[in-house]
Each structure stands twice: as structure tokens, then as C-alpha cells.
Specification:
The complex is a heterodimer of chains A (about 300) and B (about 280). By secondary structure, chain A is mainly alpha-helical. Chain A has two domains: about 45 residues; about 230 residues, MetI-like (MetI-like fold, Orthogonal Bundle), CATH 1.10.3720. Chain A is about 75% helix and about 0% strand. In chain A, strands 1-2 form a two-stranded antiparallel sheet. In chain A, helix 7 crosses helix 9. The termini of chain A are far apart. In chain A, about 40% of the residues are buried. Chain B folds into two domains: about 55 residues; about 220 residues, MetI-like (MetI-like fold, Orthogonal Bundle). In chain B, helix 3 crosses helix 7 and helix 3 packs antiparallel against helix 12. The longest helix of chain B has about 35 residues. Chain B is globular, with a radius of gyration of 24 Å. The two termini of chain B are about 45 Å apart. Classes of the chains: A mainly alpha (about 300), B mainly alpha (about 280). At the A-B interface, helix 1, helix 3, helix 4, helix 5 and helix 6 of A face helix 1, helix 3, helix 4, helix 5 and helix 6 of B.
Chain lengths: ~300, ~280
């Protein structure tokens, strides 16, 4: 018995070291490439960071933050980012849910439809942004052609990306179009995890289509819904490449979002400290919003 | 009566699904059509929906004259090693968390999860500041291989851990009794069993590296090292209105993604839905 205990102990110790060795490379990489940059980001935001690494950086305390909260461009970017999230997230949720419900009903061809709806998701932002720029071109663009020559809704071509009043519209459209496939996929998984017996039992009790949807599908999809809402909101706040590629933040800042503004400050003007301050504020906001969403929506009333 | 009702309902469902699919896919169709057009036909009113005359010259032209051949191979040379590194490192980490007990394990894991919410771009400024201090790392494709390879280890480890824990442990215990050391057990027993999850990880990792534009564009400043996304935007900046050529270039970038996705699709749909939901 004693002997047995001894070998167990050594096996335990051996496995402890083996486990540490397994996670060591990944955790080291993670410390260097994620944890350190997070802290360094906070640190840099307190400095007038110098482009030339040999010149010491000047500590300026919270000046970057003071400047940020007095910067009208920051508020423009902030409001554009919030608008983007507020507009694109509900559309992605509702349309994705609609497609998932339809796909869940029609069994034939599900794989093909799923692929077709998922194509925009797997295509890179670079490609789809360039593509939407072409579709929304002023003269000879497909969207203007449809609106003017096919549907006769407008008389003259709209300068979608070239005027401040409409420049966000192609960006919203792209965000929604590209996101539907993802929400569909997650909702579809949520729908398929609902036990069929529940519906059968409710039908025996005389419940019809809408009632089934409202009383069974919606409540049981609630966790999926909250998960999606949080993920899509984080995604919405992170809107970046579509804006950078389609408008570069213009015309006259009308499409500037937080990420493009941060990019401009950090990598065009090389204000690394100021860019880092934007990043920190941005991070705190996104983190707070996602925590609030989780807290208020996760509690299951059923 | 109820049978007729069911047929009508199904008909409506399929009409809606087809309509939606047309909207989702039309932009791609129009891109393909444009990539087959001659330059005179790209902005005609009404727009041509079937290229007449159709030509493959645009593809030949961007591949040979506009350096897309170079960008394509640059992308391949970065993506393959980065994906291999990423999948290997992530599975090692996930397996360690799934199967072993060591001090502060759950603390480490919760730190991993907590940082999942940190948006990638927020790290970019300090990361760039790190890289630019080492001369060797700037303008070097190896940097992208390394950073993409270790990039999303936190998410991947979180995602894979559940799958390793879902595999029955008896097989691994049997392997250990047969004298396999921990690494051999992981390599010969656990990895093959986790194949569906690994396939999903390959897709995610491939998409992440192949499509990455922003980070590589900061590091790879020399044209000879550009990857496809940098090349596409570089081409657009130079020849702003040559959409037929540009879209031939984007098609070259899309095709490998399609091949990889369709190959691994059956694993992907299942595992992303199951794994992604546990957040």
C-alpha cells in the first residue's frame, strides 16, 4: 500500500510538470504578445511617445486623455461608431434569425443554402469593401442603376460615398450583409438544440405556429440571443476595414469611426501615445457595454 | 387541406430562401462577371449581367503584369507555416489545460478568457512599437508567420479545451499504461480524436492569416513582400478605375478560401456552433 502511494505521488508530480510543459509555449507567447502589450498600451497612453526609439519619451500624465475628451473629432468618431452598432446589430439579429428559422423548416438543400448565406462571412473585408465600393459607384454603379432605371425611385444618381449625408449607408449595408451568415449559423445551431418533443407536446395541447415560436422558440433561444447581441455589439464597435477602404473616414470626417481615427492618429501622424489613449478609452467602453448586456440580459426569467 | 397548406408553406419558405440567397450572392456574381469583361464594358448602362464578349485576359494580365503571382506566393508562404504553428501551439496549450493539473491552472485560464474581449486593433499600437525596435523584424515575412502563428492562441485554447475534455480519457490512459509519454499520447491518441475541432481551427486560422490586411501592411512595406490583400489595395490605389482587373485579382484571393472552406465545411458548421456558444 505504501509503495502504491509513492508511485501515485510521483505520477502526480510527473503529470504536473508535463501539464506545465504543454501550456508553457502558448502561455509564454501569450504573455509577450497579448498581456505585455495590454499593459504597455496603458503605459504608452501616459506619454508623448517618440517616433524615434532612441529619443526618450516624455511623460505627460493624463494629458492625452484630457486632450481626447476635448477633441471634437473624437466625438464625431464615437457617435459614428455607436450609430454603426445601433443600426447594424438589430438587422443582423433579425435577418439572421429569420433565415435560420426558414432554413430549419426547409430541410432540403440546407447545406447549399447555408454555404450561399455564409459566403460573405468567409470573404475578406478587403475584397467585400472594394466590391461594395463598385456596387455603390455614382455613375454606372449597380445600386444606382437598380434605384434609377429599374425601380424609378430616384431621378438622378446618388453620390453614395462622395457626400457626407449618404456615405455611411454603403458601410451599414456592407456590415449587415456580411454579418447575416454568422448570426444565421449560430441561431441555426440554437434552433436545432431545442428538443422536438417540446413542439409535439405543445401541438397536442393545440398551440399553433406563432404561439410555438413565441412560447417555445424565443425563450429557449434566449441564451443564443444574448451571446449574439454581445458578440455583434463588440464586432460593431470594431468596425474598421470597411470604412478605411471605402471612404478612409471621409468625406469631411462623416464616416470617421473610433478605429479609423485611432489608425489615423497612430499610423499617419505617428501620435502613438494619443492613439494608445483612444485605444484605452475604446477598450473600457466596449468592455463595460458587453458586461452590462450580459448582466441585464443573461438572467433567465423562466 | 392540411397537405395543401403544407405545400404552400414550403413553397413560400423556399421562395424566401432563394430570394435571400440571390441577394447574398449577387455581389459575388457581379464581381465574377466584371472580372471577365473588357475594360470598355465595366460601367455601361444598363450594366451587362452576362459578359459579352467574355475574356480571361484580365486574369492573365493581373497574374503576370500586375504582380498578383508574386502576391499569391507571398501569401501562401506566410499562411501555411503560420496556420501549422497556430494549430500546433493552440492544441498543445488546450491539451495541457484539458488533461493536467498544475498550480494556478484555472487562474491562468480565466485570464486567457478575460482578454478575449480585448479587440485586436487595441493591441496593434504597442505590438507595432515592439516590432519596430528590432530591425530584423521589420519588412520580414517571418515576423508575420510568427505573430499570426501565436496570434489567437487564447481564443483557440479556450475553443479546443472543451473538445479535448469531451473525448473519453480511457484511450489516453491505456496509451499511458502501454508506456507512451505524455507528448506521444497527445500526438498519437488525442490529436487524431480531435480531428473535427482541428479542422475547424484550420479554417478559422487560415481565414485569419490569408485575409489579414492591416497588420501585414504595417510590417511588410516593400512591394516585393506584399501579400494578396495588400496587393489588391495597392493595385486599387494605382489604377483606381480598372475594376475588371481589380476583380480578377480579388477572385484569385477568394478561390483558395472557397476550396478550404468547402473541404472542411461539414466539421466547421458543427463545431463552431457547438463550441462558440459556450462563451
Amino acid at each position: 500500500m505504501i509503495f502504491q502511494g509513492c508511485t501515485d505521488l510521483t505520477r502526480e508530480t510527473r503529470r504536473k510538470w508535463a501539464g506545465l510543459l504543454f501550456v508553457l509555449p502558448g502561455m509564454l507567447a501569450y504573455l509577450v504578445w497579448t498581456i505585455y502589450p495590454i499593459f504597455n498600451g496603458f503605459y504608452m497612453s501616459l506619454f508623448k511617445w517618440n517616433l524615434n526609439p532612441r529619443i526618450p519619451n516624455e511623460f505627460i500624465g493624463l494629458s492625452n486623455y484630457v486632450k481626447l475628451f476635448q477633441d471634437p473629432q473624437f466625438y464625431v468618431a464615437l457617435s459614428n461608431t455607436i450609430k454603426y452598432a445601433v443600426i447594424t446589430v438589430p438587422f443582423q439579429l433579425v435577418l439572421g434569425l429569420l433565415v435560420a428559422v426558414l432554413l430549419n423548416r426547409g430541410k432540403k438543400g440546407q447545406t447549399l443554402f447555408r454555404l450561399l448565406y455564409y459566403l460573405p462571412v468567409i470573404t475578406s473585408w478587403v475584397v467585400v469593401s472594394v466590391l461594395f465600393q463598385y456596387l455603390f459607384a455614382t455613375r454606372g454603379g449597380m445600386i444606382n442603376f437598380l434605384l434609377k432605371d429599374v425601380l424609378h425611385l430616384i431621378k438622378t444618381d446618388i453620390k453614395w460615398l462622395a457626400q457626407t449625408s449618404t456615405a455611411m449607408i454603403p458601410i451599414y449595408t456592407l456590415g449587415i450583409w456580411k454579418g447575416i451568415g454568422w448570426t444565421m449559423l449560430i441561431f441555426l445551431a440554437g434552433l436545432q438544440s431545442i428538443p422536438k418533443q417540446l413542439y409535439e407536446a405543445a401541438r397536442i395541447d393545440g398551440a399553433g405556429g406563432w404561439k410555438l415560436f413565441a412560447k417555445i422558440t424565443m425563450p429557449l433561444l434566449r441564451p443564443t440571443f444574448v451571446f449574439q447581441l454581445v458578440m455583434l455589439t463588440i464586432g460593431g464597435f470594431n468596425v474598421f476595414l470597411s470604412v478605411l477602404i471605402m471612404t478612409g473616414g471621409g468625406p469631411r470626417n462623416s464616416t470617421q469611426v473610433l478605429n479609423t481615427y485611432m489608425f489615423k492618429e497612430a499610423f499617419e501622424y505617428f501620435h502613438f501615445g494619443y492613439g494608445a489613449a483612444i485605444a484605452v478609452v475604446f477598450f473600457i467602453m466596449v468592455f463595460t457595454i458587453s458586461q452590462l448586456q450580459r448582466r441585464f440580459l443573461k438572467s433567465d426569467p423562466y | 387541406m392540411s397537405k395543401l397548406k403544407r405545400i404552400i408553406t414550403n413553397l413560400i419558405i423556399y421562395i424566401l430562401l432563394v430570394l435571400g440567397a440571390v441577394i447574398m450572392c449577387f455581389p459575388f456574381y457581379y464581381m465574377i462577371v466584371t472580372s471577365l469583361k473588357e475594360s470598355a464594358y465595366i460601367f455601361t448602362v444598363p450594366p451587362q449581367l452576362i459578359p459579352e464578349p467574355a475574356t480571361l485576359n484580365n486574369y492573365v494580365s493581373v497574374w503576370t503584369k500586375a504582380d498578383f503571382k508574386l502576391y499569391f506566393w507571398n501569401s501562401v508562404k506566410i499562411t501555411i507555416p503560420a496556420v501549422l504553428l497556430n494549430v500546433f501551439l493552440s492544441s498543445l496549450t488546450a491539451y495541457g489545460f484539458a488533461r493536467f493539473r498544475f498550480p494556478a491552472k484555472e487562474l491562468w485560464f480565466s485570464i486567457l478568457i478575460a482578454t478575449l474581449a480585448v479587440p485586436g486593433l487595441l493591441l496593434t499600437i504597442p505590438q507595432f512599437d515592439m516590432v519596430r525596435r528590432v530591425k530584423f523584424l521589420m519588412d520580414n515575412p517571418f515576423t508575420i508567420i510568427l505573430t499570426s502563428g501565436i496570434g489567437s492562441v487564447a481564443f483557440n485554447a479556450f475553443f479546443l479545451r472543451g473538445f479535448f475534455e469531451g473525448i473519453p480519457i480511457e484511450l489516453e490512459e491505456a496509451a499511458e499504461l502501454d508506456g507512451c509519454n505524455a507528448f506521444r499520447t497527445y500526438w498519437k491518441v488525442a490529436l487524431p480524436m480531435a480531428r473535427p475541432a482541428l479542422a475547424t481551427l484550420v479554417i478559422l486560422s487560415f481565414l485569419g492569416v490569408w485575409d489579414d490586411y492591416f497588420w501585414p501592411s504595417l510590417i511588410l512595406r516593400e512591394r516585393s513582400q506584399w501579400t494578396l490583400p495588400i496587393g489588391i489595395l495597392g493595385f486599387r490605389a494605382q489604377h483606381s478605375v480598372q475594376w475588371h482587373l481589380l476583380f480578377a485579382g480579388t477572385m484569385i484571393a477568394i478561390l483558395p478560401v472557397l476550396v478550404i472552406y468547402i473541404t472542411f465545411q461539414k466539421y466547421f458548421v458543427k463545431t463552431v456552433a457547438e463550441g462558440g456558444l459556450k462563451l
